Amino acid sequence: MKRILIKGCSILTMCIKEQPFIGDILIEDERIAKITPSIEEAADRVLNGGGMVAMPGLINAHNHASMSLLRAFSDDLRLMDWLDKKMLPAEARMTKEDIYFGTMLGTAEMIASGTTAFADMYVHMDAVAQAVVDSGMRASLTRGLVFLEDDGGRRMTEALDLIDNWTGAGDGRITTMLGPHAPYTCPPQPLAEVIDLARKRRIPVHIHLAETREEIEKIRMKYNQTPTEYLHEAGLFQDNHVLLAHAVHLTGTDVKLLRGMKGGVSHNPVSNLKLGCGIAPVTDMIANGVTVGMGTDGAGSATTLDMFAEIKAATWMQKLEHGNPTVLPAEQVLRMATIESAKLLGIEKEVGTLEEGKRADLILLDLNKPHLQPVHNLHALVAYSATGADVDTTIVNGQILMHRRQLLTMSWEEIRRESAERAARLVEGL
Ligand SMILES: [Zn+2]
């Protein structure tokens, strides 16, 4: 058995109403064996947690990691110009190897900014899954399904191959979902088939919903419904575990349709802000019992995969929207980025809080910095002042992926070189 002992850190368990305390954490193989004020036991490795905060790793509930190759390539454009003139032509050139290295770049950034698990929807998911195995991260993977033209069932075959071949891989770090892309790319017939299959095989569903006003208009023109009504009528929320990305433009009636759904919503505030999409009704959804977690969306739009930026944006947006600084307080927004996101991925029994018996997915934040002193309220300090660059150590499934900011499961030199070369080829002439 391999044992890692972390000594003398400030511990934020993110369990409800549990106050921070100073203590030790013992990890045995992939699990947290003990969390108490003092542990005096032998270990293979002892990490000094003095001046550090230990907390659950952040969970990015909506990403397209390999789009990291297109970071800061086309910004400050209208959504449809950004998509049609820049993203889609560049993505059309992506090979399986590009997607592997793009995902490795994404995982490098996530590990370096304290994210331990993510949900991803893309193509060539074999390459994404291999990058997850190699990086040591945890992920819920989905092959995006667009049904605008007949591809002879190719995408669906790939989606099922991903589920059959990769679920449970990487010592159980990989889980999978079915991914009908969005209401406007999934007509009623194929959507109904996917929902039926998901229900029969008990596979969770990951789908974009109501990201833009254009989407609302499109669905209104076609079906005289809101996108949420469209998915509701298709039966998506009856029995399936569903991960909804965005949910920006919901009516009061839409929010009520989501009541009691299994799964919930990934709120992606930085991408929503940057593309000028709007402000999701986060507090309204929470008040109606909908689980709301948090994600970045791809770096092609969000530009950064730093979840600490999302934490700030999420709470700022709600405070501004409601003209009320008391909404979405620090502790609650940190829970959204950890345990609530874990619920969206269906892994909340294993990760998302620091508790004995759970998987050891945790991070150490270094407080020995001007912007993180003095320490009054640890939740507020971490939510409002910390950034991803303050993460010193990242551990997933009991394996140290980064320590003292050194990535340990990959060659950063190789990732940097491959990313630069491949990214240059993808955008040439665009
Ligand atoms: Zn997305």
Describe the structure.
This protein has 430 residues and is α/β, with parallel strands linked by helices. It has 2 domains: 104 residues, Urease, subunit C, domain 1, CATH 2.30.40.10; 288 residues, TIM Barrel, CATH 3.20.20. It is 40% helix and 23% strand. Strands 1, 2, 3, 4, 5, 14, 15, 16 and 17 form a 9-stranded mixed β-sheet that branches. The chain has a 4-stranded parallel β-sheet with strand order 6-7-8-9, sandwiched between helices. Helix 2 packs parallel to helix 3. The radius of gyration is 21 Å and the shape is globular. Bound molecules: zinc ion. The site of zinc ion has 5 residues, from loops.
Quickly name the level 1 CATH class of the largest domain. Alpha Beta
Provide the CATH topology of the largest domain: TIM Barrel
Hetero groups in this structure are: zinc ion
Report the CATH architecture of the largest domain. Answer: Alpha-Beta Barrel
Overall helicity = 40-55%
Kindly report the average pLDDT value: 97
The number of domains:
2
In DSSP terms, counting alpha (H) and pi (I) runs of 4 or more, how many helices?
Answer: 17
What is the gyration radius calculated from CA atoms?
A: 21 Å
Compact overview of the structure:
The chain is an alpha/beta fold. The protein contains 17 helices and 17 strands.
List its salient traits.
binds zinc ion, 23% strand, 9-stranded mixed beta sheet, 2 domains, 17 helices, alpha/beta, Urease, subunit C, domain 1
Question: How are the SSEs ordered, and which strands pair?
Answer:
Layout: E1 3-11, E2 21-28, E3 31-36, E4 45-48, E5 52-56, E6 58-63, H1 79-92, H2 96-112, E7 115-122, H3 125-135, E8 138-145, H4 154-166, H5 169-172, E9 174-180, H6 188-201, E10 205-209, H7 213-223, H8 227-233, H9 236-239, E11 241-246, H10 252-258, E12 262-267, H11 269-274, H12 282-287, E13 291-294, H13 299-302, H14 307-322, H15 330-345, E14 362-366, H16 378-384, E15 391-396, E16 399-403, E17 406-407, H17 412-427
Parallel strand pairs: 1-4, 1-5, 6-7, 7-8, 8-9, 10-11, 11-12, 12-13
Antiparallel strand pairs: 1-2, 2-3, 5-14, 14-15, 15-16, 16-17
Helix pairs in contact: 2-3, 2-17, 14-15, 15-16
The protein binds zinc ion.
Residues 62, 64, 208, 245, 297 line the site of zinc ion.
